[in-house]
Amino acid sequence: MNRLGAILDRLLPGPRRPPRRLLALDLETTGFDPELAEIIAIGTVPIVDDAVRIGATTSTLVRPANRSAVEGIIAHHLRPADVISAPVLADVLPEVLAAISGTDALLVHHAALDVRVLERACAATGLQWPSPRVVDTIDLIERVRRRQRATGSGRRLPRDLAGARDALGLPPHQAHDAAADAIATAELYLALRVHLSA
């Protein structure tokens, strides 16, 4: 096992073998409460052997079950008409779950929201949550922050996606777009790995 693989083996939770196939996923939702938020967009991009497969990016809008939630989507640069004509969650979720099941780990930024919303979505649609190994970039950011505190080095790495990317020298991205945020999360993950291996 190479040096980076050995470091990852220590850093990532779960089974000892570091993931080689990850699925970066981002949800756009109607709110930030994981017990109430509905999914209005899902974006994914695979990472295979440390390469972000941009050509395999997926993105779909989702029509929320609660019609009143449609009005609260302005932050996502969507119009109510965009999601009213979108497919319902039950039509979209099986393909997303199949993609999650086909990887070594699910990669998200802020698992406490996205994973819980997905678990609730599965329960609401009668589908089985595959209980994947989850890698959260916020957890990796916290590891960097602990190292910074211990060594007294540098400005504290921000926890938000855009701020962490900027601090690590990654370019700005189009926030509040599920596909763009999934790609941004994948790039941040790779940058954090390099940072943690230094």
Characterise this structure:
It is a single chain. With 198 residues, the protein is of the alpha/beta class. The chain has one domain (3-197): Nucleotidyltransferase, domain 5, CATH 3.30.420.10. Helices cover 42% and strands 16% of the residues. It has helices spanning 3-11, 80-84, 89-101, 111-125, 137-151, 161-167, 178-197; strands spanning 21-29, 39-48, 51-52, 58-61, 105-108, 134-136. Strands 1, 2, 3, 4, 5 and 6 form a six-stranded mixed sheet that branches. α4 (111-125) links the parallel β5 and β6 (134-136). α1 crosses α7 (178-197), α5 (137-151) runs parallel beside α7 (178-197) and α6 crosses α7. The longest helix is centred in the last third of the chain and has 20 residues, at 178-197. The chain is globular. The mean pLDDT is 87.
Q: What's the SSE blueprint?
A:
Layout: H1 3-11, E1 21-29, E2 39-48, E3 51-52, E4 58-61, H2 80-84, H3 89-101, E5 105-108, H4 111-125, E6 134-136, H5 137-151, H6 161-167, H7 178-197
Parallel strand pairs: 1-5, 5-6
Antiparallel strand pairs: 1-2, 2-3, 2-4
Helix pairs in contact: 1-7, 5-7, 6-7
Quick description:
This protein has 198 residues and is of the alpha/beta class. It is 42% helix and 16% strand.
Low-confidence stretches: none
State which percent range the strand residues make up.
Answer: 15-25%
- What do we call the CATH topology? Nucleotidyltransferase, domain 5
| Overall geometry | globular
Please, what is the CATH homologous superfamily? Ribonuclease H-like superfamily/Ribonuclease H
H/E element sequence: HEEEEHHEHEHHH
* Mean pLDDT across every amino acid position: 87
Structural class: alpha/beta
